[in-house]
DNA sequence: CTCTGTGCAAACACTTTGCAGCTAA
DNA sequence: TTAGCTGCAAAGTGTTTGCACAGAG
């Protein structure tokens, strides 16, 4: 925990440098706000919401607006510098099928499709998870583009 | 479509009867609204939101309120007559860790924990999914109660 | 200098809560 | 009868959009 970086790959400045490169490659300007959002995100281990990050970043750039944080996060996700935790951000969706199955979600049209792949019906809960958490649900979850959305150009 | 039921297990009235039994067992009253919501849900294959179902049920019970539909769905999920699609209903949560990993989400406190179980890092996309969808993300996803939330009584 | 990004504010969409009258049991 | 359910209304929370000014390239 006190050990700064075990990933073996890059320290924080390296990550920032990589991020700057990524921005330029994507045609995005490197602004203090973007750097701050990126830095705060990679330092956060709690999968923060836009609001949680906003409050943290305010300590660094007091007059940053929530909208900038929110929009920047969305931008980071688009250029691949951040991930949106699977499923989050959608309205609640219900399923009346109680039989064990999996879901595929189209990130474009938001449709959710049932997947019945019995190999995935009994994924065992690894010991290290089962002892720390009480797992009530284990699913294999797919995201991507459905056939209809693949036909129209993205964006 | 005109074919009533191919599931082989139970026809619609059976499912409704089962649902009534489940309600009584849970100490819930069997109301026309609950029956209508349940019926509409199990007939829907598109993982509807409360609003989507509300509009459908309005055709059957024109003066039903959105709130009843919404609350009923939440109730169904509680008694195990419906499922909330994994992750949905939460605010967007971001992740700055790009390395392949999995998530455990506590349904009570909404905290999300990283899981690093390398066995799950390379779940192959089944042929029948890959040909129909363009999968950009495959994850094993866990839900349940974290240790802290297990200590306090649920509800 | 130019064009993108930022900050502010308003509009929206979804969810939750409280309460009075209604109804299943 | 009576506890629980429904419908209505309001408030709360998170997200999106439009626009004028500021700042990166």
In short:
The structure is a homodimer of 155-residue chains. By secondary structure, the first copy, chain A, is an alpha+beta fold.
Major sheet description of chain A: 3 strands, mixed
Q: What Rg of chain A is obtained from the alpha carbons, in whole angstroms?
A: 19 Å
The topology string of helices and strands of chain A comes to HHHHEEEEHEH
Shape assignment of chain A: globular
Low-confidence stretches of chain A: 1-10
Count of DSSP-assigned helices of chain A: 6
Output the CATH topology of the largest domain in chain A: Arc Repressor Mutant, subunit A
Say what oligomer this is.
Answer: homodimer
Name the beta content range of chain A.
15-25%
What does this structure look like?
2 copies of one chain form a homodimer. Chain A has 155 residues and is α+β, with helices and mostly antiparallel strands. Chain A has 2 domains: 9-85, Winged helix-like DNA-binding domain superfamily/Winged helix DNA-binding domain (Arc Repressor Mutant, subunit A), CATH 1.10.10.10; 100-150, 2-Layer Sandwich (Dna Ligase, domain 1), CATH 3.30.1490.190. Chain A contains 6 helices and 5 strands. Chain A has a 3-stranded mixed β-sheet. Mean pLDDT of chain A is 91; it is low at 1-10. Chains A and B meet through helix 2, helix 3, helix 4, strand 1 and strand 2 of A and helix 2, helix 3, helix 4, strand 1 and strand 2 of B.
């Amino acid at each position: 925990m006190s050990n700064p970086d075990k990933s073996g790959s890059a320290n924080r400045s390296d990550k920032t440098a990589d991020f700057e490169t990524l921005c330029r490659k994507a045609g995005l300007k490197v602004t203090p706000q973007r750097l701050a959002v990126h830095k705060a995100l990679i330092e956060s281990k709690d999968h923060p919401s836009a609001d949680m990050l906003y409050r943290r970043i305010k300590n660094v750039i007091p007059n940053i607006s929530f909208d900038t944080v929110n929009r920047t996060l969305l931008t980071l996700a688009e250029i691949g510098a951040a991930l949106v935790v699977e499923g989050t951000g959608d309205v609640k969706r219900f399923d009346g099928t109680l039989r064990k199955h999996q879901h595929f979600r189209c990130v474009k049209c938001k449709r959710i499709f049932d997947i019945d792949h019995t190999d995935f019906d009994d994924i065992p809960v690894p010991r290290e998870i089962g002892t720390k958490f009480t797992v009530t649900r284990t699913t294999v979850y797919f995201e991507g583009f459905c056939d209809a959305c693949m036909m129209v150009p993205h964006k």
